[in-house]
Amino acid sequence: MGKFYGEIGYAEQIEATAGVWREQITERKYIGDVIKNVSRIRNGENLNDDLTIDNRLSIIADPFAYEKFHAMRYVNWMGALWKITSVEVQRPRLILTIGGVYNGPTPIASPDSGSTIGDE
């Protein structure tokens, strides 16, 4: 199939203020293969139908990915952020199943980066 190159977002729980915890997202870049590429439009309870995908990506994992695979939240693929619904360890790779659009927190951009990505 096709090749993959993109960012994967990892969530870490940090204490923002005393007793208040939130997810801090960091991104790391990976390469790999697209091993399944399927798109579905699902009729939902919303005004607009939900776009979901049932894709599988096989990435070449580094030690960080093996240690933190449980903290993976999304993958930046085809110009959108997609939720990671499951991760399967098959050394030296991780097989990621991705589903609907990810709407959670993203990395906070630094003021000098010029990026508009950010969510608090």
In the sheet with the most strands, the strands line up as: 1-2-4-7-6-5
Q: Report the structural category.
A: mainly beta
Summarize the amount of helix as a percent range: under 10%
Shape: flat
Radius of gyration: 15 Å
Total beta strands: 7
| Count of alpha/pi helices | 1
Given as residue ranges, the uncertain stretches (5+ residues, pLDDT < 50) are 110-120
Q: Beta-strand percentage?
A: over 45%
**Amino- and carboxy-terminal Cα gap:** 37 Å
Order of helices and strands: EEEEHEEE
Number of domains: 1
Main sheet: strands, sense, barrel: 6 strands, antiparallel, barrel
Overall mean pLDDT stands at 84
Identify the notable features of this structure and list them briefly:
120 residues, mainly beta, six-stranded antiparallel β-barrel, 1 helix, 7 strands, flat, disordered C terminus
Could you explain how this protein is built, in words?
The protein has 120 residues and is mainly beta. The protein is 5% helix and 61% strand. It has one domain. A hairpin with a 2-residue loop joins strand 1 and strand 2. The longest helix is centred in the middle third of the chain and has 6 residues. The protein is flat and about 45 Å long.
Question: Topology, pairings included?
Answer:
Elements: E1 3-17, E2 20-36, E3 39-42, E4 50-60, H1 63-68, E5 72-77, E6 80-90, E7 93-101
Antiparallel strand pairs: 1-2, 1-5, 2-4, 3-4, 4-7, 5-6, 6-7
